[in-house]
């Protein structure tokens, strides 16, 4: 258990006001503990999982490793450190796997566990588990089970779907209007007009990625500008969607789902 906050396999929702401090302290406590931990940071597309994980890892003060799960298994294995005291059998297994001559086997899991154990304290972050390559998808739960036996080792995954045991799940929910307004103010460096904050929140639905994309879109199109004293705006007609292609697609799907749900209610 981490500072009295983690219950095995429980679903948790972090405090909205300071998610970054919460996650940073959770990871620090896990890395300093007497047990290993497998943690999952989950939520809808664009809710801020990867951004939050990256910011927290940057404040850790210990070894942290981040890898996209969409990469082939060889590249994931190749990105891990090789401690000098690594047993010869583990070195051979990892060398073969990083050269594309291995598979997601029990031997590879044990070799990865041996390397992580010697690197402790360490946080190994696998990003976007929902987009994982087939081999990495097979490897992840087995590695998580092995990690829980390794003091000072944390396996952190981010994704959109529950990874199952032995991961402890943490779910990120959309920001309310006040929190979204503070996010906008942090990026602009000045108070945001209340009408702008409300306009963006109504369309972004509290999704941090969409919130910032709408903000950038308003500035790019000249609908939000500074006169050197304060921010001014004029409402665009029609409202522009978020600019990133992925965000556009996800936004359209979310909007369509909300429409269907509303009609069925």
The low-confidence parts are 1-10, 255-265
Q: Care to count the β-strands?
A: 8
Secondary-structure-based class equals: alpha/beta
Total DSSP helices: 10
Rg calculated over all Cα atoms: 21 Å
For the largest beta sheet, what order do the strands appear in spatially? 1-6-2-5-4-3
Helix content: 40-55%
Report the β-strand fraction as a percent range. 5-15%
- Series of H and E elements: EHEHEHHHEHEEHHHEEH
Distance between the termini: 41 Å
- Let me know the average pLDDT: 84
Assign an overall shape.
elongated
Biggest sheet character: 6 strands, parallel
Can you put this structure into words, describing what you see?
With 265 residues, the protein is α/β, with parallel strands linked by helices. The protein is built from ten helices and eight strands. Strand 4 (122-127), helix 6 and strand 5 form a beta-alpha-beta unit. Helix 7 packs across helix 8, helix 7 crosses helix 9 and helix 8 (194-204) crosses helix 9. The protein starts with 10 loop residues before the first strand and ends with a helix.
Give short descriptive properties of this protein.
47% helix; disordered C terminus; 6-stranded parallel sheet; elongated; 10 helices; disordered N terminus; single chain; 14% strand
List the helices and strands and how they pair.
Blueprint: E1 11-12, H1 19-31, E2 37-42, H2 49-58, E3 63-68, H3 73-78, H4 88-98, H5 106-119, E4 122-127, H6 134-147, E5 153-159, E6 168-171, H7 177-188, H8 194-204, H9 208-220, E7 224-226, E8 231-233, H10 245-264
Parallel strand pairs: 1-6, 2-5, 2-6, 3-4, 4-5
Antiparallel strand pairs: 7-8
Helix pairs in contact: 1-2, 4-5, 5-6, 7-8, 7-9, 8-9
């Amino acid at each position: 258990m981490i500072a009295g906050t983690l219950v095995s396999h429980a679903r948790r929702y972090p405090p909205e006001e300071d998610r970054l401090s919460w996650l940073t302290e959770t990871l620090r406590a896990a890395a300093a503990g007497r047990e290993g931990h497998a943690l999952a940071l989950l939520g809808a597309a664009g809710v801020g999982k990867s951004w939050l994980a990256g910011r927290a890892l940057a404040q850790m003060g210990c070894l942290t490793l981040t890898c996209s799960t969409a990469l082939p298994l060889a590249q994931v294995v190749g990105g891990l450190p090789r401690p000098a005291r690594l047993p010869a059998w583990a070195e051979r297994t990892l060398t073969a796997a990083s050269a594309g001559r291995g598979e997601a086997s029990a031997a590879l899991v044990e070799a990865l566990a041996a390397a992580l154990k010697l690197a402790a304290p360490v946080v190994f972050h696998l990003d976007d588990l929902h987009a994982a390559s087939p081999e990495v998808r097979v490897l992840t739960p087995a590695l998580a089970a092995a990690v829980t036996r390794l003091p000072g080792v944390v396996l952190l995954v981010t994704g959109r779907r529950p990874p199952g045991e032995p991961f402890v799940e943490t779910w990120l929910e959309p920001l309310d209007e006040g929190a979204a307004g503070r996010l906008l103010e942090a990026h602009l460096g000045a108070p945001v007009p209340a009408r702008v904050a409300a306009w963006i929140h109504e369309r972004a639905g509290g999704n941090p990625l969409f919130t910032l994309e709408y903000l950038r879109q308003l500035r790019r199109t000249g609908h939000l500008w500074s006169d050197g004293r304060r921010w001014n705006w004029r409402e665009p007609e029609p409202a522009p969607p978020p600019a990133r292609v992925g965000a556009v697609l996800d936004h359209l799907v979310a909007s369509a789902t909300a429409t269907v749900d509303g009609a069925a209610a």
